[in-house]
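Design a sequence for this backbone.
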């Protein structure tokens, strides 16, 4: 796997490790025997945060801190990292335990995101910050040039609350309706009530469920306002 992974990294991110063991470690999940990528992921998370913070800071010279934080969060969350890892076909080179591989671990967003951060951390250890900055830039590509609209990044609960307060409508009411599934894979369902309107949402956490319900409520309210 090592040689294939080295070739892949050279072709996809134009990087060659001086210490190839770092790449092997960055691609090894805890389900496999021996050392794994968790320490490198910890380091890579910090390196990525700094690089993205710098990119956002320089590209938005007049934006307030809150907007910069939202932009950074949109670029370093697991969904974004997993999307980039998928484009790079990183999953093919992961070293997983047999059970994790059989259950589709090489396609799981959380694993792909963690492994990509581990690679960033490994590059930092291997060659320093300039090299890490360069491969992060290659991995992100046009995402470092075409930023989302900051307004779209404000979470649905915040947007709903601000919309209602601007109209002196008070605050929405959220209620947890039920929780299903086993402890490690629970699904939460919550409702959002605004006057006589009620919407529901579901997610892997109560917060996610409430955010989805708020998003649905916003769609209803804004649709009604537009009509």
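Sequence:
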């Amino acid at each position: 796997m090592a040689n294939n992974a080295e070739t892949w990294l050279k072709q996809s991110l134009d990087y060659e490790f001086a210490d190839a063991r770092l790449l092997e470690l960055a691609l090894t999940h805890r389900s496999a025997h021996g050392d794994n990528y968790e320490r490198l992921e910890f380091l890579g998370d910090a390196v990525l945060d700094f690089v993205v913070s710098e990119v956002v800071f320089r590209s938005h010279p007049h934006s307030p801190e809150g907007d910069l934080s939202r932009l950074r969060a949109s670029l370093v969350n697991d969904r974004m990292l997993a999307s980039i890892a998928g484009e790079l076909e990183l999953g093919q080179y992961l070293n997983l335990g047999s059970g994790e591989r059989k259950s589709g671990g090489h396609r799981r967003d959380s694993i792909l995101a963690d492994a990509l951060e581990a690679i960033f951390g490994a590059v930092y250890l291997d060659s320093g910050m300039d090299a890490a900055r360069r491969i992060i830039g290659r991995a992100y590509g046009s995402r470092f040039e075409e930023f989302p609209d900051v307004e779209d990044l404000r979470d649905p609960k915040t947007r709903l609350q601000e919309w209602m307060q601007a109209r002196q409508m008070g605050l929405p009411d959220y209620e947890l309706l039920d929780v299903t599934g086993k402890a490690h894979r629970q699904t939460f369902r919550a409702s959002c009530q605004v006057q006589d309107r009620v919407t529901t949402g579901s997610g892997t956490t109560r917060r996610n469920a409430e955010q989805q319900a708020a998003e649905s409520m916003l769609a209803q309210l804004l649709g009604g306002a537009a009509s």
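The chain has a mean pLDDT of 92.
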